[in-house]
């Protein structure tokens, strides 16, 4: 096994473990009576939904969200993005450099969107007592949707890259 393959496996394994840890924290410590955290809403959210969730957070939940959860959720996009990028790079071997670099856009967009979302949601939580501008919620929600679309794109790209890998080898 090459060093690159070992690094890819390590990144993928760490991403899976960290995703599980983040999911457990989200479900056991950040779920409220109005639902789960804003980051997990595939279709985004509006100002009313965000306000309902933010108001329902206890002080302890807000500390967890902006503390340990945010720290882990800041590392996670890098692990997931770099894991996908390394898999894509490996699976696209033998293809043009334009294709190889092009498929790296999805993981990069995922990383950017997830980090943008994390910062936007943290700002909403920090300002929840004073209220917030609905445009801030829209920006956070758009980043959430972009994150999920980019992640879905990464998953979908695995299929043609895997199938193309066999064609390039023969």
Question: How is this structure best described in words?
Answer:
By secondary structure, this protein is mostly helical. It has one domain (3-169). The chain is 79% helix and 0% strand. It is built from 6 helices and no strands. The protein has helices at 3-29, 47-56, 59-91, 97-102, 105-126, 134-169. α1 (3-29) packs antiparallel against α3, α3 packs antiparallel against α5 (105-126) and α3 packs parallel to α6. The longest helix is centred in the last third of the chain and has 36 residues, at 134-169. The radius of gyration is 18 Å and the shape is elongated. It starts with a helix and ends with a helix.
Number of strands: 0
Radius of gyration: 18 Å
Task: Characterize the largest beta sheet: strand count, sense, and whether it forms a barrel.
Answer: none
By secondary-structure content and strand pairing, the structural class works out as: mainly alpha
The assembly state of the depicted protein chains is single chain
N-C termini distance = 21 Å
Low-confidence stretches: none
Indicate the percent of residues in helices. Answer: over 70%
Quick check: average pLDDT? 92
Shape: elongated
Strand fraction: under 5%
State the domain count.
Answer: 1
Number of helices: 6
Can you write the helix and strand succession as a string? HHHHHH
Set down the secondary structure blueprint.
Elements: H1 3-29, H2 47-56, H3 59-91, H4 97-102, H5 105-126, H6 134-169
Helix pairs in contact: 1-3, 3-5, 3-6, 5-6
